[in-house]
TrEMBL record:
Function: Essential component of the TIM23 complex, a complex that mediates the translocation of transit peptide-containing proteins across the mitochondrial inner membrane.
Coiled-coil residues: none
InterPro entries: FCP1_dom (IPR004274), HAD-like_sf (IPR036412), HAD_sf (IPR023214), TIM50 (IPR050365)
Keywords, comma-separated and alphabetical: Mitochondrion, Protein transport, Transit peptide, Translocation, Transport
Example GO BP: protein transport
Residues covered by the FCP1 homology domain: 93-236
Record's GO cellular component terms: TIM23 mitochondrial import inner membrane translocase complex
Major localisation: mitochondrion
Gene: Contig3688.g3934
Protein topology in the membrane: Single-pass membrane protein
Protein name: Mitochondrial import inner membrane translocase subunit TIM50
PROSITE patterns the record matches: FCP1
Top-level taxon of the source organism: Eukaryota
Compartment list: Mitochondrion inner membrane
Length: 301
Protein backbone atom coordinates (compact mmCIF):
# COMPACT_ATOMS: atom_id res chain seq x y z
CA UNK A 1 0.00 0.00 0.00
CA UNK A 2 2.71 2.35 1.10
CA UNK A 3 4.85 1.35 -1.95
CA UNK A 4 1.94 2.06 -4.27
CA UNK A 5 1.43 5.46 -2.70
CA UNK A 6 5.12 6.23 -3.23
CA UNK A 7 4.91 5.10 -6.88
CA UNK A 8 1.86 7.27 -7.40
CA UNK A 9 3.64 10.23 -5.85
CA UNK A 10 6.64 9.75 -8.19
CA UNK A 11 4.32 9.50 -11.23
CA UNK A 12 2.23 12.46 -10.12
CA UNK A 13 2.55 15.09 -12.89
CA UNK A 14 2.67 17.83 -10.24
CA UNK A 15 5.50 16.00 -8.54
CA UNK A 16 7.42 15.82 -11.85
CA UNK A 17 6.91 19.52 -12.30
CA UNK A 18 8.25 20.20 -8.83
CA UNK A 19 11.33 18.05 -9.54
CA UNK A 20 11.88 19.80 -12.87
CA UNK A 21 11.65 23.12 -11.17
CA UNK A 22 14.15 22.08 -8.51
CA UNK A 23 16.55 20.75 -11.15
CA UNK A 24 16.16 23.95 -13.14
CA UNK A 25 16.89 26.05 -10.05
CA UNK A 26 19.89 23.94 -9.12
CA UNK A 27 21.27 24.17 -12.68
CA UNK A 28 20.71 27.92 -12.72
CA UNK A 29 22.58 28.28 -9.45
CA UNK A 30 25.47 26.25 -10.85
CA UNK A 31 25.47 28.34 -14.04
CA UNK A 32 25.36 31.53 -12.02
CA UNK A 33 28.27 30.21 -9.99
CA UNK A 34 30.13 29.37 -13.18
CA UNK A 35 29.39 32.80 -14.60
CA UNK A 36 30.66 34.42 -11.47
CA UNK A 37 33.72 32.21 -11.52
CA UNK A 38 34.45 32.89 -15.20
CA UNK A 39 33.94 36.56 -14.67
CA UNK A 40 36.24 36.61 -11.65
CA UNK A 41 38.85 34.55 -13.50
CA UNK A 42 38.70 36.86 -16.52
CA UNK A 43 38.89 39.88 -14.27
CA UNK A 44 41.89 38.43 -12.44
CA UNK A 45 43.62 37.62 -15.73
CA UNK A 46 43.01 41.11 -17.11
CA UNK A 47 44.11 42.63 -13.82
CA UNK A 48 47.26 40.51 -13.75
CA UNK A 49 48.10 41.44 -17.31
CA UNK A 50 47.51 45.11 -16.67
CA UNK A 51 49.49 45.00 -13.46
CA UNK A 52 52.41 43.44 -15.32
CA UNK A 53 52.24 46.06 -18.06
CA UNK A 54 51.88 49.02 -15.77
CA UNK A 55 53.73 47.88 -12.68
CA UNK A 56 56.95 49.60 -13.66
CA UNK A 57 55.20 52.85 -14.50
CA UNK A 58 53.02 52.67 -11.40
CA UNK A 59 56.02 52.09 -9.18
CA UNK A 60 57.88 54.93 -10.82
CA UNK A 61 54.85 57.23 -10.50
CA UNK A 62 54.39 56.35 -6.83
CA UNK A 63 58.07 56.78 -6.03
CA UNK A 64 58.11 60.05 -7.85
CA UNK A 65 54.94 61.23 -6.13
CA UNK A 66 56.46 60.44 -2.72
CA UNK A 67 59.70 62.10 -3.72
CA UNK A 68 57.81 65.11 -5.04
CA UNK A 69 55.87 65.52 -1.78
CA UNK A 70 59.05 65.20 0.24
CA UNK A 71 60.87 67.60 -2.05
CA UNK A 72 58.30 70.38 -1.64
CA UNK A 73 58.94 70.59 2.10
CA UNK A 74 62.67 70.04 1.67
CA UNK A 75 63.12 72.62 -1.06
CA UNK A 76 61.44 75.35 0.96
CA UNK A 77 63.78 74.73 3.87
CA UNK A 78 66.79 74.78 1.58
CA UNK A 79 65.65 77.86 -0.28
CA UNK A 80 64.50 80.04 2.58
CA UNK A 81 67.40 82.32 1.71
CA UNK A 82 66.23 82.51 -1.89
CA UNK A 83 66.56 86.07 -3.06
CA UNK A 84 63.53 87.23 -4.93
CA UNK A 85 64.32 88.93 -8.17
CA UNK A 86 62.91 92.41 -8.74
CA UNK A 87 59.39 92.69 -10.04
CA UNK A 88 57.50 93.17 -12.28
CA UNK A 89 58.66 89.99 -13.93
CA UNK A 90 57.32 90.61 -17.41
CA UNK A 91 57.38 93.49 -19.86
CA UNK A 92 54.83 96.23 -19.32
CA UNK A 93 52.79 95.77 -22.46
CA UNK A 94 50.71 92.85 -23.62
CA UNK A 95 48.55 92.62 -26.71
CA UNK A 96 46.14 90.34 -24.82
CA UNK A 97 43.59 91.63 -22.36
CA UNK A 98 43.73 88.54 -20.15
CA UNK A 99 46.61 86.57 -18.67
CA UNK A 100 46.60 82.84 -17.93
CA UNK A 101 49.25 81.68 -15.47
CA UNK A 102 49.85 77.94 -15.67
CA UNK A 103 51.72 75.66 -13.33
CA UNK A 104 53.92 73.02 -14.95
CA UNK A 105 54.48 69.77 -12.99
CA UNK A 106 51.37 67.65 -12.45
CA UNK A 107 49.32 70.37 -14.16
CA UNK A 108 50.63 70.19 -17.74
CA UNK A 109 53.02 67.24 -17.51
CA UNK A 110 54.64 64.71 -15.22
CA UNK A 111 58.24 63.58 -15.12
CA UNK A 112 58.87 60.03 -13.93
CA UNK A 113 62.28 59.58 -12.47
CA UNK A 114 62.87 55.86 -13.06
CA UNK A 115 66.33 56.01 -11.55
CA UNK A 116 69.16 58.42 -11.02
CA UNK A 117 70.10 58.38 -14.71
CA UNK A 118 66.84 57.74 -16.44
CA UNK A 119 63.40 59.24 -16.55
CA UNK A 120 60.32 59.60 -18.66
CA UNK A 121 58.47 62.81 -19.32
CA UNK A 122 54.80 62.59 -20.15
CA UNK A 123 52.53 65.36 -21.28
CA UNK A 124 49.02 65.55 -19.81
CA UNK A 125 46.32 64.58 -22.30
CA UNK A 126 45.16 67.65 -24.23
CA UNK A 127 47.90 69.93 -22.86
CA UNK A 128 49.34 70.91 -26.23
CA UNK A 129 45.89 71.70 -27.66
CA UNK A 130 45.06 73.57 -24.47
CA UNK A 131 48.08 75.86 -24.92
CA UNK A 132 47.23 76.53 -28.53
CA UNK A 133 43.51 77.24 -28.09
CA UNK A 134 43.92 79.30 -24.92
CA UNK A 135 46.73 81.41 -26.38
CA UNK A 136 44.18 82.88 -28.77
CA UNK A 137 42.42 84.45 -25.78
CA UNK A 138 45.09 84.82 -23.11
CA UNK A 139 48.71 85.77 -22.78
CA UNK A 140 50.14 82.52 -21.42
CA UNK A 141 52.72 82.56 -18.65
CA UNK A 142 54.18 79.38 -17.19
CA UNK A 143 54.92 79.82 -13.50
CA UNK A 144 56.70 76.85 -11.96
CA UNK A 145 58.49 76.31 -8.69
CA UNK A 146 60.90 74.02 -10.52
CA UNK A 147 64.48 74.90 -11.32
CA UNK A 148 64.97 76.76 -14.56
CA UNK A 149 67.16 74.15 -16.29
CA UNK A 150 64.65 71.36 -15.75
CA UNK A 151 61.63 73.57 -16.56
CA UNK A 152 63.09 74.80 -19.85
CA UNK A 153 64.01 71.25 -20.85
CA UNK A 154 60.51 70.03 -19.96
CA UNK A 155 58.74 72.90 -21.73
CA UNK A 156 60.65 72.20 -24.91
CA UNK A 157 58.68 68.95 -25.19
CA UNK A 158 55.52 70.85 -26.06
CA UNK A 159 54.75 71.15 -29.75
CA UNK A 160 53.04 74.47 -29.08
CA UNK A 161 55.69 75.95 -26.81
CA UNK A 162 55.65 79.09 -28.97
CA UNK A 163 52.20 79.82 -27.50
CA UNK A 164 53.89 80.54 -24.16
CA UNK A 165 54.78 84.21 -23.75
CA UNK A 166 56.85 84.02 -20.55
CA UNK A 167 58.42 81.44 -18.28
CA UNK A 168 58.75 82.06 -14.56
CA UNK A 169 60.73 79.69 -12.33
CA UNK A 170 61.62 78.95 -8.72
CA UNK A 171 63.47 82.25 -8.36
CA UNK A 172 60.22 84.06 -9.08
CA UNK A 173 58.22 82.19 -6.41
CA UNK A 174 58.01 83.23 -2.77
CA UNK A 175 58.76 80.50 -0.17
CA UNK A 176 56.00 80.81 2.39
CA UNK A 177 54.33 78.42 4.80
CA UNK A 178 55.92 75.31 3.27
CA UNK A 179 55.02 76.19 -0.29
CA UNK A 180 56.40 78.09 -3.21
CA UNK A 181 53.75 80.75 -3.40
CA UNK A 182 53.13 82.28 -6.79
CA UNK A 183 52.38 85.90 -6.04
CA UNK A 184 50.40 87.20 -9.01
CA UNK A 185 50.93 90.79 -7.90
CA UNK A 186 54.62 90.46 -8.77
CA UNK A 187 54.12 89.38 -12.35
CA UNK A 188 53.25 92.78 -13.75
CA UNK A 189 49.77 92.17 -15.09
CA UNK A 190 46.35 93.50 -14.11
CA UNK A 191 45.22 91.24 -11.26
CA UNK A 192 41.57 91.62 -12.28
CA UNK A 193 42.42 90.07 -15.67
CA UNK A 194 44.68 87.26 -14.45
CA UNK A 195 43.78 83.62 -13.76
CA UNK A 196 46.13 81.00 -12.34
CA UNK A 197 45.70 77.23 -12.76
CA UNK A 198 47.68 75.04 -10.35
CA UNK A 199 47.45 71.55 -8.86
CA UNK A 200 48.44 72.93 -5.44
CA UNK A 201 45.90 75.43 -4.15
CA UNK A 202 48.35 76.77 -1.54
CA UNK A 203 50.53 78.02 -4.39
CA UNK A 204 47.98 80.73 -5.13
CA UNK A 205 47.03 81.41 -1.50
CA UNK A 206 47.82 85.11 -1.81
CA UNK A 207 45.20 85.55 -4.54
CA UNK A 208 42.78 82.63 -4.03
CA UNK A 209 40.02 84.41 -5.93
CA UNK A 210 42.14 84.29 -9.09
CA UNK A 211 42.90 80.60 -8.78
CA UNK A 212 41.55 77.47 -10.32
CA UNK A 213 42.63 74.27 -8.63
CA UNK A 214 43.19 71.41 -11.06
CA UNK A 215 43.63 67.81 -9.93
CA UNK A 216 47.19 66.50 -10.06
CA UNK A 217 48.05 64.43 -13.09
CA UNK A 218 50.56 61.59 -12.98
CA UNK A 219 49.72 58.86 -15.46
CA UNK A 220 46.03 58.57 -16.39
CA UNK A 221 45.77 58.55 -20.22
CA UNK A 222 42.00 59.12 -19.94
CA UNK A 223 42.35 62.38 -18.03
CA UNK A 224 40.05 65.15 -19.33
CA UNK A 225 40.67 67.93 -16.81
CA UNK A 226 42.24 70.36 -19.30
CA UNK A 227 39.63 69.54 -21.90
CA UNK A 228 36.89 70.36 -19.40
CA UNK A 229 38.59 73.52 -18.19
CA UNK A 230 39.18 75.13 -21.59
CA UNK A 231 35.53 76.11 -22.33
CA UNK A 232 35.26 77.90 -18.99
CA UNK A 233 38.40 79.96 -19.60
CA UNK A 234 37.46 80.73 -23.20
CA UNK A 235 34.00 81.87 -22.16
CA UNK A 236 35.39 84.21 -19.53
CA UNK A 237 37.60 85.86 -22.16
CA UNK A 238 34.89 85.92 -24.84
CA UNK A 239 32.43 87.46 -22.41
CA UNK A 240 34.86 90.33 -21.91
CA UNK A 241 34.41 90.30 -18.12
CA UNK A 242 35.65 93.25 -16.15
CA UNK A 243 37.00 91.20 -13.29
CA UNK A 244 37.83 87.50 -13.64
CA UNK A 245 37.56 87.10 -9.85
CA UNK A 246 33.86 87.96 -9.95
CA UNK A 247 33.28 85.55 -12.81
CA UNK A 248 35.13 82.74 -11.02
CA UNK A 249 33.19 83.44 -7.82
CA UNK A 250 29.97 83.11 -9.75
CA UNK A 251 31.07 79.79 -11.23
CA UNK A 252 32.03 78.43 -7.83
CA UNK A 253 28.64 79.37 -6.39
CA UNK A 254 26.86 77.89 -9.37
CA UNK A 255 28.84 74.68 -9.04
CA UNK A 256 28.00 74.44 -5.32
CA UNK A 257 24.32 74.94 -6.14
CA UNK A 258 24.44 72.14 -8.68
CA UNK A 259 26.20 69.84 -6.20
CA UNK A 260 23.57 70.66 -3.58
CA UNK A 261 20.92 69.66 -6.12
CA UNK A 262 22.68 66.33 -6.55
CA UNK A 263 24.01 66.96 -10.06
CA UNK A 264 26.54 64.20 -10.66
CA UNK A 265 28.99 66.18 -12.81
CA UNK A 266 28.63 69.87 -11.98
CA UNK A 267 31.69 70.79 -14.06
CA UNK A 268 30.13 69.49 -17.24
CA UNK A 269 26.83 71.14 -16.40
CA UNK A 270 28.70 74.32 -15.69
CA UNK A 271 30.51 74.40 -19.02
CA UNK A 272 27.19 73.99 -20.83
CA UNK A 273 25.82 77.08 -19.09
CA UNK A 274 28.79 79.40 -18.94
CA UNK A 275 27.51 81.98 -21.40
CA UNK A 276 24.11 82.08 -19.77
CA UNK A 277 25.67 82.63 -16.35
CA UNK A 278 27.96 85.37 -17.61
CA UNK A 279 25.06 87.07 -19.39
CA UNK A 280 23.07 87.13 -16.14
CA UNK A 281 26.14 88.43 -14.37
CA UNK A 282 26.56 91.31 -16.85
CA UNK A 283 22.84 92.11 -16.63
CA UNK A 284 22.92 92.19 -12.83
CA UNK A 285 25.95 94.49 -12.94
CA UNK A 286 24.22 96.83 -15.39
CA UNK A 287 21.10 96.83 -13.22
CA UNK A 288 23.19 97.73 -10.15
CA UNK A 289 24.96 100.49 -12.07
CA UNK A 290 21.65 101.89 -13.31
CA UNK A 291 20.25 101.89 -9.78
CA UNK A 292 23.34 103.67 -8.49
CA UNK A 293 23.14 106.29 -11.24
CA UNK A 294 19.46 106.85 -10.50
CA UNK A 295 20.21 107.17 -6.79
CA UNK A 296 23.02 109.67 -7.48
CA UNK A 297 20.84 111.79 -9.74
CA UNK A 298 18.09 111.79 -7.07
CA UNK A 299 20.60 112.95 -4.44
CA UNK A 300 21.87 115.72 -6.74
CA UNK A 301 18.29 116.81 -7.51
MG1 LIG B 1 52.45 71.52 -9.84
Amino acid sequence: MKANQERQKKNDPNRVEIYSHQIFNATSDIMKGLDKMSFQQSKDMIGKSLRQDYSILEQAAQQNQNKYTAEVAHQVQVDQSLQLIPCPYVKASSHKKYTLVLDLDETLLHYYEINEYDGDLRIRPGADDFLKSLSEYYEIIIFTAAMQDYADWALDHFQNKSCISYRLYRQHASPFGGFYVKDLSRIGRDISKTIIVDNIAENFQLQPENGIFIKSWFIDPQDTALLELAPLLISIAESNVNDVREALKLFRLHMLEQMAKGVMNPTMYLTQNIKEILKKYSESLSATETKLLEKNSQIKA
